[in-house]
Amino acid sequence: MSKGCTFYFVRHGETYLNLYRRMQGWSNIQLTEKGSEDVRRSGKGLANVKFDAVYSSDLSRTIETAGIILEENKDADDLIVHAMPEFREVFFGSFEAQGVDEVWASINEVMGYPTVGDLWSKATVPEQMNATKKADPYHHAENYLEFWTRIEKGLIELIKTHRDTGDTVLVVAHGNTIRYMLNGLVPELVAPQPLLNASVSKVSYYDGLYHLESYNQVDHFRDL
């Protein structure tokens, strides 16, 4: 077996749009006080993990989250955060910053399920994303192909840099980005649940395949 590499995918901390239950894709907004505290608790739990490289999306909430985690890490003095637009959240077009419940009701009108709950439980991720683009009055929201094409560019860059190095890599991104990405990469991850803020999902990559080690973990959090 090759050396491979290991990725720690971390979702950013809670933001004000999370708190207000509003759609948050490419919108830039800061972490709440609770969001910062949870990230620091997550960082303390990761303090002894020696990261060889750190990446984030280029949105402020992930860059802020990555910075807090590095502040708590015992071996991060020489590390810098590489911001990559490829790892942004899904773009929701004109639905950005609108109420979550209202937006999903609009998407469900396109899908035609009896309830939004049925939509979530029965429609695939590609179907949901394609319906979001159709429901957006401007049709600017990303569909699945647009999202995956963007994410794949970032993944190829990471694998090109870290494959067979044995490196441990921190990637701070977004709830849908990480969930949809891992759903597409890891065969055993079926219908993954939404990710908690500041949670960790650990994936190893070797012999050309991604292997899930943990998903949506918060039990490593430590008290401040």
TrEMBL record:
<dbReference type="GO" id="GO:0004331">
    <property type="term" value="F:fructose-2,6-bisphosphate 2-phosphatase activity"/>
</dbReference>
<dbReference type="Pfam" id="PF00300">
    <property type="entry name" value="His_Phos_1"/>
</dbReference>
<keyword id="KW-0378">Hydrolase</keyword>
<feature type="active site" description="Tele-phosphohistidine intermediate">
    <location>
        <position position="12"/>
    </location>
</feature>
<feature type="binding site">
    <location>
        <begin position="175"/>
        <end position="176"/>
    </location>
    <ligand>
        <name>substrate</name>
    </ligand>
</feature>
<feature type="site" description="Transition state stabilizer">
    <location>
        <position position="174"/>
    </location>
</feature>
<protein>
    <submittedName>
        <fullName>Probable phosphoglycerate mutase</fullName>
    </submittedName>
</protein>
<dbReference type="InterPro" id="IPR029033">
    <property type="entry name" value="His_PPase_superfam"/>
</dbReference>
<dbReference type="GO" id="GO:0005829">
    <property type="term" value="C:cytosol"/>
</dbReference>
<dbReference type="GO" id="GO:0043456">
    <property type="term" value="P:regulation of pentose-phosphate shunt"/>
</dbReference>
<feature type="binding site">
    <location>
        <begin position="11"/>
        <end position="18"/>
    </location>
    <ligand>
        <name>substrate</name>
    </ligand>
</feature>
<feature type="active site" description="Proton donor/acceptor">
    <location>
        <position position="89"/>
    </location>
</feature>
<dbReference type="InterPro" id="IPR013078">
    <property type="entry name" value="His_Pase_superF_clade-1"/>
</dbReference>
<dbReference type="GO" id="GO:0045820">
    <property type="term" value="P:negative regulation of glycolytic process"/>
</dbReference>
<dbReference type="InterPro" id="IPR051695">
    <property type="entry name" value="Phosphoglycerate_Mutase"/>
</dbReference>
<feature type="binding site">
    <location>
        <position position="61"/>
    </location>
    <ligand>
        <name>substrate</name>
    </ligand>
</feature>
